[in-house]
Design a protein that fits this description.
By secondary structure, the protein is mainly beta. It has a single domain (27-331), classed as Tachylectin-2, Chain A (5 Propeller), CATH 2.115.10.20. It contains one helix and 24 strands. The strands form five sheets. Strands 11, 12, 13, 14, 15, 16, 17, 18 and 19 form a nine-stranded mixed beta sheet that branches. It is globular and about 55 Å long. Residues 1-17 have low confidence and may be disordered.
Length: 338
């Protein structure tokens, strides 16, 4: 008896129906069976790269197809030292190719969460699986060097910015979103500016109130920041959205408008979807969102990385719809070769 048939029999005895095997033009939306905080990019070499939180190292997956990332080549590209300020609790690494070199942005601490800061790794090799990632240093506003996680880089109107989730002071009272200009891939060029605080009821489930995991989404000259809200340990974890006013300055808090409702939330057997990133299909015709979600209700830290396509509304805002149902295959990205 094959493994799938044996599994089917067991599920049938339990009164359940197993998912059908995916057809050649479909795949299951789970990109990593275990993982969180996904960051996915497609590089000029035609490969897709994925990073996610492992906790004790920086691991990168890559594949010629978006749907094949879970089965792709995998490499630990950096391990922290045994002790020190960036030796523990590595969260939400992101792989970026900037100014001809590879960089990883990752949050880390010394085992005490209050000491979480953002750090930058650098690799000059053309292939991020070759060469060596070395610690370039901490990236922070020297005038407000506070707790920081979930840092990412975006470019808009010819300037580069760093945006992250941080504390206003030294205590874990609330997580806000901060942005600062960048002088180069490892140095800020100005002070941090707070552009979002959790205020709506859907942003303030449990304590502390949370805005985190900001990700930039640019289309037709419009800039959006999609972020995670409420406690990641709750089923109410969801995605919110900021939009920059036309012609606005990303460093001006008044230039940002917050959508009053979540733009992506628990539904259809998927719980606590959050901490996303965005990537194009191989032919460039589709936009895809990668995110993590809890596998079962109330089991917030047992999460998987999932992916699905999303669309756009007539007013130019993203329409993420609802999370794809567990166990149901979805269509492969357009232009993907099997």
């Amino acid at each position: 008896m094959t493994a799938f048939r044996a599994w089917s029999v067991l599920l049938a005895l339990a009164g359940c129906q197993p998912p059908r095997p995916a057809a050649p033009d479909t795949f299951f939306p789970v990109a990593l069976a275990d993982g969180a905080d996904p960051w996915v990019i497609r590089h000029t070499d035609g490969l897709y790269y994925l990073t996610a939180t492992t906790g004790d190292d920086v691991t990168v997956w890559r594949s010629p197809t978006l749907s094949g990332l879970a089965r792709g080549e995998r490499k630990v590209v950096w391990r922290p030292p045994a002790d020190g300020p960036y030796s523990r609790d590595l969260w939400a690494p992101e792989l970026h190719h900037l100014d001809g070199q590879w960089y990883v942005y990752v949050a880390a601490d010394d085992g005490d969460n209050a000491n979480h800061r953002m750090y930058v790794l650098e690799n000059p090799a053309a292939d991020p699986f070759a060469g060596e990632f070395t610690l370039k240093g901490k990236i922070a506003d020297p005038q407000s060097d506070r707790w920081a996680i979930d840092g990412t880089v975006f470019e808009y109107a010819g300037r580069r910015y760093f945006v992250w989730s941080g504390w206003e002071g030294d205590g874990d009272v609330r997580q806000d979103l901060y942005v600062a200009p960048m002088a180069n891939p490892f140095t800020l060029a100005g002070p941090r500016v707070c552009i979002s605080r959790p205020t709506y009821p859907w942003e303030t489930v449990d304590d502390p109130d949370v805005n985190e995991g900001p990700q930039a989404l640019v289309r037709d000259g419009r800039l959006f920041l999609v972020y995670s809200a409420s406690g990641a340990w709750t089923d109410d974890y969801c995605l919110g959205r900021l939009a920059l006013k036309p012609g606005g300055d990303p460093l001006d808090p008044a230039a940002w408008g917050k959508h009053p409702e979540p733009v992506f939330r628990s539904a259809g057997g998927v719980f606590g979807p959050g901490h996303c990133s965005f990537v194009k299909s191989p032919d460039g015709n589709e936009d895809w969102i990668a995110y993590h979600a809890s596998k079962r209700p109330g089991v917030s830290w047992d999460r998987s990385v999932r992916m699905q396509a999303f669309g756009w509304r007539p007013d130019g805002t993203p329409d993420f719809g609802f999370p794809a149902r567990p166990g149901v295959p979805i269509r492969r990205p357009s232009g993907e070769r099997r």
